[in-house]
Write a structure and sequence with these properties.
The complex is a heterodimer.
Chain A lengths: L10 E5 L3 H12 L3 E5 L14 E2 L4 E2 H14 L3 E4 L2 E9 L2 E8 L14 H5 L38 H7 L12 E7 L1 E4 L4 E2 L16 E3 H8 L20 E8 L16 H16 L4 E6 L9 H10 L4 E4 L4 E4 L6 E5 L8 E5 L1 E6 L1 E2 L2 H10 L24 E3 L9 H20 L24 E5 L4 H4 L4 H9 L4 E6 L6 H13 L4 E6 L2 H14 L7 E5 L1 H5 L6 H19 L9 E3 L4 E4 L3 H12 L4 E4 L21 H14 L3 E4 L2 E9 L2 E8 L4 E7 L1 E4 L4 E2 L13 E3 H10 L1 H6 L2 E5 L16 H15 L4 E6 L8 H10 L3 E4 L7 E5 L2 E8 L4 E7 L1 E4 L3 E2 L2 H11 L26 E3 L9 H19 L3 E3 L5 E3 L9 H5 L6 E2 L5 E2 L10 H5 L5 E3 L4 H15 L1
Parallel strand pairs in A: 1-2, 1-9, 2-5, 9-20, 11-18, 12-13, 12-18, 13-14, 21-22, 21-23, 23-24, 26-27, 26-32, 27-28, 32-43, 34-41, 35-36, 35-41, 36-37
Antiparallel strand pairs in A: 3-4, 6-7, 7-8, 10-19, 15-16, 16-17, 25-44, 29-30, 30-31, 33-42, 38-39, 39-40, 45-48, 46-47
Helix pairs in contact in A: 1-2, 1-9, 1-23, 5-6, 6-7, 9-23, 12-13, 15-26, 16-17, 16-23, 18-20, 20-21
Chain B lengths: L7 E6 L3 H10 L8 E6 L7 H10 L3 E6 L10 H18 L7 E5 L5 H18 L9 H8 L1
Parallel strand pairs in B: 1-2, 1-3, 3-4
Classes of the chains: A alpha/beta, B alpha/beta.
Chain lengths: ~1000, ~150
């Protein structure tokens, strides 16, 4: 049994290498904590790696995800253990003693170059994910997999010796053994994800019997460029492109039938819309798409707009119906769906070429074992049980949860929880005084500015990958004759440890000052070679990689001599270009570790307290006279928790914390600086005194406003109130409620309408909450809920079901046929249409409760957006840096967001984001300095004519004309795209690392041969 | 004339097109070796000057490849590149090199197959157009005449 106890004494364990686990691990690592990240699969990435695109941006998934994966493989503080499971755990005094079991991969990770020779020769014994052949053509789990290596299924391998011989890197370990590892951890984060409900037992859908019925995930694989059909949309039975596709929602979810789960899986409506949109985008009028649904639950940020686009722009047909059956159309492979719609009492049969089942999430059986070993309690749906106001804390102190194992959710919410869990875990680790992995010591940089270029060229053969097609020694000879090349050598596998050490040694012995590597892609290996030359005393920007593998030998397999010529050209281009490279300095700034939190509601206070507990100084600025925000007026949550009790405690702790300075009645008026060095001006108190705060990080938690549109007699008739009003009324006027006979609720008032097109997310659950409480007080009361779609996502569905069971009546209305309301003395008369009976119903009600939701405070957010240079959505909420992967980070570095300033959300969700913002902030605050990289635009003031073109061209508004009258680009803010450099008519701007003369030198190098 | 092998310069943005080119490699999609990739952080970094110099130095075709519209890592770089390319096409027509020798393409990082297809199609297009008329002299035609 191995142990690395002597190397590091305190760390967190993250179980599950899906996107949530990766995020949590990265946040912890960036925060300076050590992490062991384990996953039972051969590579990390989880479910997300199998998706083709993600909503609502329809971006390519791997493109957005893979940098994170590579980052997690590289990060100094993370130990990545794949094929690894937790087998035993023991806790005492805040420490967890854990035994991890790593199954043999039979491949040496440090040697495997992912060339694919093993798979080519022995496809049967290289691991892949089964089911509709999810294989990528390279047969790793997916291209860009981390670790970038294969994995062998030894049980299927008949001739181990032969397999070992095909590996040119000698990476196959036939006698690789299972390893047990005993480690101690200060904290554990559970991010094991969930599995998809198996539609097989739901016989009505015919999945597993009829070939053209696939699940949503399988359809993703069909659409994916790295999938089994290489992105060609063909149906399984006859490999023909389908002309008509149907999606069926809630397959296995929202049902109490055998084999189903009763909750809502939260993500399926959006993924079905996405799949339909992507399909339509590609085939337009050549394909028909229909989605069969019960309620369209597009309640996330801007998701409603996505739904509108699906309907209006893409012509996706939405059918409100849960189909009864899917059958084979006799004599064909086509499918016929039988369904009933409310407008028609007779069932309809409709034919489709292909049917996609939107199956939901469920917790796999092995997680029950994991929870048991850790002593973590599960809820009735087998998800990890968490506290009402502690969204990521499990029942066991020191163990946190994020992502699907907490509740069904989509990726942005998973990312929020991952950062929140990392924040919580950081707190446990802090007290232990974590020691870092020994950081590598670099020798001082040699000054090469006065030297003529002495270039070393190192050509990899990468086994057969390069040398199989071209003669690398010919390359080496050729490169040796190029001007300024002092050394030219072949290095076998350049990225192996031995080769790297050799390169380092040659640089030092031969006094080289520039290096060219002829090998694979700089995208994957640049950092590695930069590190190597840095260790040899050179500035890391003095290396250039000629991509002679991925962009030459791999793509010209049938043309060896041309590939050989091209490799020479590519090496020559790199040589002429690297000769002009010069040492670059990375920009480093000291860090001010104080934090400014704007907004004193639940999210702001949560973030402030987390940071203050971590020992940081926090300024909490609140516009109004009191802390608490909207939550101060909320009495109960859907789950029945007492909000006021929680708020009282939160406000008390915030006000009394020695590290928090609360500034009420304060307004932000100006702001300058860069992350780590911000200065923000405020006007404070009733007399509006001006003061400045210096801080390193800003958290925005300015909240939203309770919407109060002048509709349905609100504020005109006493019996009409909002759900928020009713929430208080229920507590304060129980006697009056006891006398009520009827209550009508109208959903989507002031939301999902032309003035405010988005969904307010919280209103469906508040209606259910109030309906159930009304019935608790007065069981005789008759409640009518007039709705458009009931959006009780996740476990809220349980309460919706309970409400129906307890006799609450739900009537769907269409926006163009909305209810009519008029006053009848102290009561209100509501007229609405019952779509099932197709007739008007009149109810005279004691109370009309309007679900009005939340809207952004337009004026307030506009001011702040101007002052802080932050973008907003069209409805006035702040826009995060990346809606999928960075939901807590704002696009301006050093800014984070939490709570309803981001989008409408529940208290629990606001708390999670508050914790996440504090966690994200700590990733910055852990450093004493900030490294801003070296790829920044630099202005030559001599050449600048102050023409303002760069000022207009920059997508990030960085350049400005300074007091001296020329353009200035703050390296701390520059993103390094180089657009300004391209547009500058005077060529006064150069992008470091990509300077014009270096690009020209590449062209010169290329055309030298041809000329 | 069938020996004419065009030289094509492809300016590829780091985040999408260059990654797609690597992906084409990973998946072994072959395309003609005539295409030489120069990596830039963003397609918006490609200078009109770089393109014109490439033609001056002897490129028979040039293309800029960036992210899909809306996916640009730097928000609008690909849109700026597309504008610049459209403008240069006019200029190339004027000076007799011809607009068809320059193109802007977009792709996502996962589209290795698209990268290979574009490289193949564009090479064919340039092959049909023949050598860049701006190339110094017409020594190639002479050689053909001799041979």
């Amino acid at each position: 049994m191995e142990t690395y106890e002597d190397k590091y004494n305190n760390r967190a364990l993250v179980i599950g290498g899906g996107i949530g686990g990766i995020k949590a691990a990265l946040d912890l690592a960036e925060g300076g904590k050590n992490v062991v990240l384990i996953d039972k699969a051969p590579s990390i990435g989880g479910l997300m790696t199998q998706l083709d695109r993600t909503f609502p941006t329809n971006n390519c998934d791997l493109c957005t995800l893979s940098p994170h994966l590579a980052e997690s493989g590289r990060e100094l503080h993370i130990d990545l253990l794949t094929l690894t499971e937790l087998v035993d755990a023991d806790s005492e005094g805040g420490k967890f003693k854990v035994t991890l079991k790593t199954s043999p991969r039979f491949i040496d990770l440090s040697r495997c170059t992912a060339c694919g020779d093993c798979f080519k020769n022995f496809p049967e014994c290289v691991r892949f994910t089964p089911g509709l052949d999810h294989r990528a053509p390279t047969c790793m789990r997916y291209p860009q997999s981390t670790p970038y290596a294969y994995s062998i299924d030894m049980a299927k391998c008949k001739d181990v010796d032969a397999l070992g011989k095909v590996c040119p890197a000698n990476a196959i370990i036939p006698d690789d053994k299972e390893k047990l590892l005993e480690l101690e951890f200060g904290s554990i984060i559970l991010a094991p994800g969930a599995e998809l409900v198996d539609p097989r037992p739901l016989e009505v859908y015919g999945y597993g019997v009829l070939p053209n019925i696939v699940t949503g995930l399988e359809y993703e694989r069909i659409l994916s460029a790295s999938g089994p059909t290489l992105g060609e949309l063909i149906r399984p039975s006859d490999k023909k492109q389908p002309k008509k596709i149907a999606w069926i929602q809630c397959v296995g979810s929202r049902s109490v039938k055998e084999g189903c789960v009763s909750y809502c899986s939260s993500a399926c409506c959006m993924y079905a819309l996405k799949e339909a949109i992507v399909t339509k985008e590609r085939f337009q009028n050549d394909i028909e798409t229909a989605i069969f649904y019960m309620d369209m639950r597009t309640s996330g940020k801007d998701y409603e707009l996505y739904l509108q686009r699906a309907k209006e722009e893409y012509g996706i047909r939405l059918v409100r119906s849960r189909p009864e059956s899917v059958e084979r159309e006799p004599g064909t492979d086509n499918l016929s769906i039988t369904y009933t719609i409310t407008e028609n009492t007779l069932p309809v049969r409709e034919n489709f070429d292909m049917v996609i089942l939107s199956n939901g999430f469920r917790i796999s059986d092995d997680l029950i074992g994991l929870a048991e070993k850790l002593g973590v309690e599960l809820n009735e749906h087998r998800f990890a049980k968490t506290g009402a106001f502690e969204p990521v804390a499990t029942s066991k102190h020191g163990i946190y949860v994020c992502g699907l194992f907490e509740a069904p959710k989509d990726i942005p919410e998973t990312m929020v929880q991952a950062s929140a869990a990392a924040c919580m875990a950081m707190e446990d680790l802090q007290s232990e005084g974590a020691s870092k992995k020994p950081e590598e010591e670099f020798p001082p940089e040699r000054d090469v500015s006065k030297e003529e270029p002495r270039i070393g060229v190192f050509v990899c053969d990468c086994g057969y990958n390069i040398a199989g097609l071209i003669n690398t020694s010919e390359m080496v000879d050729y490169a040796g004759k190029l001007p300024q090349v002092a050394v030219s050598e072949g290095v076998g596998y350049g990225c192996s440890r031995e080769s790297l050490e050799h390169i380092q040694q040659v640089i030092q012995e031969e006094k080289l000052n520039r290096v060219v590597i002829g090998g694979c892609s700089p995208r994957t290996h640049e950092t590695l070679f930069q590190d190597t030359i840095r260790k040899a005393g050179l500035n890391k920007y003095l290396v250039e990689i000629a991509n002679i593998r991925d962009q030459d030998t791999w793509v010209h397999l049938d043309r060896a001599s041309e590939a050989s010529d091209k490799a020479k050209d590519l090496i020559r281009m790199a040589v002429t270009s690297v000769a002009l490279s010069h040492p670059l300095k990375e920009h480093v700034l000291p860090m001010n570790k104080d934090i400014l939190v704007v907004g004193g509601g639940v999210a702001g206070m949560t973030a402030a307290l987390k940071l203050a507990d971590g020992g940081f100084k926090v300024y909490l600025v609140e516009k109004s006279g009191e802390l608490g925000g909207i939550a101060r007026t909320i009495r109960k949550t859907l789950e029945g928790e007492d909000v006021q009790h929680f708020m009282k405690d939160l406000i008390e702790r915030t006000t009394n914390h020695k590290n928090i300075q609360v500034l009420t009645k304060s307004m932000i008026v100006d702001h300058t600086g860069m992350p780590g060095l911000f200065t923000t001006g405020l006007q404070v108190g009733p007399r509006m005194f001006y003061r400045q705060i210096k801080h390193g990080v800003t958290i925005l938690a300015t909240g939203a406003l309770a919407n109060r549109p002048r509709e349905y007699l609100l504020d005109e008739h006493e019996a009409v109130m909002t759900q928020l009003d009713l929430d208080g009324f229920l507590e304060d006027h129980k006697d009056k409620v006891k006398a009520w006979k009827k209550v009508v609720m109208i959903q989507c008032v002031g939301s999902r309408c032309p003035e405010n097109p988005n969904c307010s997310r919280i209103c469906c659950q508040s209606a259910i909450k109030n309906a159930l409480r009304l019935l608790d007080i007065n069981p005789e009361i008759q409640i009518y809920v007039l709705y458009r779609d009931m959006r009780t996502y996740g476990f809220q569905e349980d309460f919706y079901r309970e409400a129906r069971k307890r006799g609450v009546l739900f009537f769907r209305y269409e926006p163009d046929d909305s209810p009519k309301v008029s006053g009848r003395n102290e009561r209100v008369e509501v007229i609405f249409k019952d779509p099932i009976l197709n007739r008007e119903i009149t109810v005279t009600t004691d109370c009309l409760a309007l679900s009005t939701g939340l809207v952004a405070d337009e004026e307030d957010t506009e001011d702040l957006a101007m002052i802080f240079h932050l973008p907003r959505t069209s409805d006035g909420f702040f826009l995060e840096d990346h809606v999928k992967l960075r939901p807590v980070d704002l696009p301006v570095p050093g800014f984070f967001i939490a709570g309803t300033a981001h989008s409408p959300k529940t208290i629990r969700e606001s708390i999670a984001q508050g914790q996440a913002a504090a966690g994200r902030a700590q990733t910055l605050l852990a450093r004493d300095t900030i490294n801003l990289g070296a790829t920044v635009a630099r202005v030559d003031s001599e050449k600048c004519a102050a023409c303002l073109i760069c000022v207009r061209a920059c997508p990030f508004d960085v350049p400005f004309i300074n007091a001296d009258g020329y353009s200035e680009i703050d390296p701390a803010k520059c993103h390094g795209c180089g657009i300004c450099a391209a547009e500058c008519p005077a060529k006064a701007i150069q992008l470091m690392q990509y300077e014009d003369d270096q690009i020209m030198a590449k062209l010169d190098g290329l055309f030298e041969r041809i000329a | 004339m069938d020996t004419f092998e065009p030289v094509i310069v492809a300016f590829c943005c780091h985040y999408c097109a260059y990654t797609a080119a690597d992906m084409a490699g990973t998946m072994r999609y072959s395309y003609p070796p005539n295409v030489y990739i120069i990596r830039v952080p963003c397609s918006g970094k490609v200078d009109a000057l770089h393109i014109m110099k490439a033609f001056q130095k002897g490129a028979d075709g040039v293309y800029v490849a960036g992210c899909l519209e809306g996916d640009c890592h730097f928000k609008t770089g690909n849109i700026k590149a597309a504008h610049m390319v459209a403008y240069l096409k006019g200029l190339l027509d004027e000076i007799g090199i011809g607009a068809e020798r320059l193109e802007m393409f977009t792709m996502s990082a996962g589209m290795g197959e698209r990268f290979a297809r574009i490289a193949t199609d564009f090479t064919e297009r340039i092959r049909k157009l023949g050598p860049n008329p701006a190339k110094a002299g017409s020594d190639k035609t002479d050689k053909v005449a001799v041979g």
